[in-house]
Amino acid sequence: MAVRELEVPSRPSGTDPAGPRGFVGALWHRLVYPFRRGNRPAPQPPTGFYTDTTVCIGCKACEVACKQWNQLPADGFSFTANSYDNTGALTAESWRHVKFIEQFPTPEPITAPPSPTRFELNVLPAPAAPAPGYPDFSRWLMMSDVCKHCAAAPCQQACPTGAIVYNEFANVYIQADICNGCAYCVAACPFGVVTRSHFDGHAHKCTLCYDRQRDGLVPACAKACPTASIQFGPVADLRARAEKRVEDLNARGVSAYLYGAKPTDTYTELHSFYLLVDRPEVYGLPAEPVNPWVHMRGDYLRAVGTGLVALGVLITLLLTGN
Fold first, then answer.
1. What predicted TM-score, i.e. pTM, was given to this entire model?
2. Can you list the alpha helix ranges (DSSP code H) found in 103-175?
3. Hey, where are the domains in the chain?
4. Count of C-beta atoms within a 10 Å radius of residue 285
5. Would the pLDDT of 135 be above 70?
6. pLDDT at 228 over 50
7. Are 182 and 55 in contact (CB under 8 A)?
8. CATH class of 33-106+121-283
9. Is 155's pLDDT higher than 50?
10. Given phi > 0 = left and psi -120 to 50 = alpha, else beta, which region is 260?
11. Where is pLDDT greater, at 3 or 196?
12. What is the number of helices (H) and of strands (E) in the chain?
């Protein structure tokens, strides 16, 4: 067994005992889940990714493996002139993206003459004088980004058609044949993961290789990673392994921490979490992700309150005859 692979319990052939029972149960099941076909598979221990950015070498083998296995089309590569990263971002056609964060201790002098061949770095520049949180040396940070498979995903909550569901492995899965392309999920995701395809207009993202998991296989990206930066397995086991790795790095003087392994006041835990050695913003991640529902609850309450006040005024007018 490779070091990056954790044993996943075999998938039983049975179905969820909470499935429909009898005519009434079957009718209710059809009304609640109109697009579901057959019985629901029995739930399995949640699976996910643990990405150790300290050992990522930026080879992009995970990107290639993901595209090959999922038969994803090329979404076009262009010369960015500011980075060796030719993918740019996660898209509906690129479910894996290796970020290149190029850090330098001192930027070019402001008095340098302008040149048409000089482009501003599309990363957070380090200040001229070293400050807390910035290295006093040049370095490249690599991170293989992917869907976070949130334990309570805003995209799933925002989907009006039921196209986004949780499978038996607690992975967030988009059913493209049910998606209507409304892009509500695109706006709901605080990580900018979900996008619509230019080919079919539907939303697509990482499936955590659901087809491979059902056959007891490791996702293609984790299988292809040569340094075990991408590790796959039950989330609880991955979290324990990641915490041990953080302790080891901290003991060696490396300021490492886990991003998304535990819930916060504004967001749930991530089933695809990361080990980072710099601020989340440096990696293009929000420091404090917020579920849009946190703000929408107040909007709903205000709307209901306004409606009740209007109804009260109307009833008062009717009773007084004015």
1. 0.75
2. 154-158
3. 33-106+121-283, 292-322
4. 20
5. no
6. yes
7. no
8. alpha beta
9. yes
10. left
11. 196
12. 8, 10
